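Today's session is about reading a structure prediction critically. Students often jump straight to the picture, but the first step is always the sequence itself: look for stretches that repeat, for charged clusters, for runs of hydrophobic residues. Only then move on to the predicted structure, which in these notes is written as discrete structure tokens rather than atom positions. Here is the chain we will use throughout the hour.
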Amino acid sequence: MLILPLVLDIAIGLVFIYISLSLIASEIQEIISTLLEFRAKHLKTSIQYLLMGSDIDSVNEIKQTKQLIDELYDNPLIKNLNHQSQGNLSYWVKTTNPWRVDTPTKVKNQLLKRLNQVKDIDLTEFKNEMEEILNNKKIQENSLDVIQLKFKQKFNQLLLKQSNQTNRQKLVKIRTELLENKTLPSYIPSETFATTLLESLQIPQLTHCYSSDKFKGVIKRLIKKLSELENLDSRNLEKFIKETKEIYDDFSDQKYKLEVSLLRVKARLNELILDNDNDETTRQNLKSIKNTFFEGKNFEILCHELKLNLIYIAQFLELDGSEIKRGEFEKN
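Below is the predicted structure for this chain, in token form.
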């Protein structure tokens, strides 16, 4: 009986030790992953595999996928996400890690290497200022981004001194490539990723162009039916055509949504009916045309037809190097 309490004490102690060690190991792994940005790199690689799928064998398709990912990460919604580690430990790891490209010394060397390729530019003062930054102990106590920001401020001063437009453009390109924040986010919210992906694939523009073409076709069909009415006043018809053209232009310029634009056409058609109140036959024919396009289920079907569906999107994405143009889907 005396052995049982001893066994329980040992068991409880072992469980406590194992739990403590596992928590410490997890925390150390988390710190290392955060400092070396393993999670951010793994996230970008996972997104690449997600977009590439399993059927991509062409080198050109792989290149296009990587270009799409670069566009995603250059989008302000993702570019402004910053989950990098801060503090002295983070700075020490970043500055002593030989596999990192963006250490202060390496950034300085890359800057000077690129700037030496630019003709007719005096770098003496800029070199001295960068050396002062690197030798300043107070600045070195800050994070890597702070030092890079100091470099960027001095670089902007150098840029302002250039009168040659060609040199200014080259310096802007160098600043973008070497001094802009390139820290990858370790976490991207689902809504942010979806919005960015849609923008990069130009889905909103594609949808609007498709709807614009179909909307134009609806207006043409409507005008054709109105033109077939024998007793319809030509002046009223011309006025209606002019007004519907303005409605279409407003929709093409994205001033109004699709449903609102259709309701505006319906309102103009109601005005056309009121303008022809002297001829009962013409009024009945106009009402019949209005019911065909804008009443009940017919209006719901019309709205559905004017909106782009996934089949057309898939067909468009299969087009290699295509641009979104008005009239792209008229054949459909």
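Discussion point for the tutorial: Residues 97-101, 319-332 have pLDDT under 50 and may be disordered.
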